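Shape is hard to put into words, and the shape of a protein is harder than most. The fold becomes a row of whole numbers, each drawn from a learned catalogue of backbone shapes. The outcome of that step, for a single protein, is printed below.
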Amino acid sequence: MSACIRCAWQCVLCANEHKLLIVYVQSHNHHNSYKYNPALLKVVILEVKNMKLYGYLVSSKNRIKILKAMSIDIPKKSKSIAKDTELSWQTTSAELNNLLKVKVVEKIGTGYLLTEKGYFLITRISSLPSFDNWVLEDFVKTHQIHKIPSMILKDFGIWEQIDFKGVLPTDYLATEKESILSCTRQYRAITPNVIKIDLPLIKNKINTIPIKFIYSKQSIENEGAKEYIEEQIDHNIQIRFVDIENMYIMGRILDVREAHISFRTKQREFDFKNYIVGDDEEFVFWCRRNFHYLWEQGVPY
């Protein structure tokens, strides 16, 4: 994804089920400068229309294998595609019929070709990792990844430099101060419960960089929460609230260099045993998109 489109994604506002689309583009220095850019409007509209189709394609390993084995100019028979993908002919034929219905492939005689739409999509999806040795495959099976908005889900798991780390919830919260102090540009955090921060210890940092927290609405009623919230707001920390059911991710983003995130398990609990951490550029950018999405959904105190 180009730098321009990355910036546009941060600032796309969709309303009335995408009938209204307003695009503001952040300047390339990634400071807080925004301006309307009509040149990107058609590209972003195309992205929006393809969001659901992206989700449909990447939800099946077999569909991706088949599309990657096809060409836009040389027809291939279903048996040849089955051989190249090491899938059964029955599975290949069934998936080709599905792909015909969504118009990403077309049939020419007895052969199959990618359509222009199919070629565009598989070119974009080609950055996805090999599903045969995808490190996140088992993780996806045990976590509520389907809660991620489709516009963001399509880029899930394309990261290279990530690791899994197990931490205790208390240990994670205890490192909040150190995480904030390590930042030089900005700090972002998403957490279900309001955090008590020793504000005098980060006073200089508060006056230097923007700090934002997203808490759950339900946490406001916890003991001491209102006092902590008001104290943080008085110290220029920006806060918004989302419903706990809509908080599909939690974690923190340190500047634009590192991120730590956790998702809910199938049992609806945030998983601290498999915390994803990394400094891969795509990973950090993906986490920032999630934060921006929830921030836009959130309400102030």
Residues 54-121 form a domain with the Arc Repressor Mutant, subunit A fold (CATH 1.10.10.10). The two ends are 35 Å apart (CA to CA).
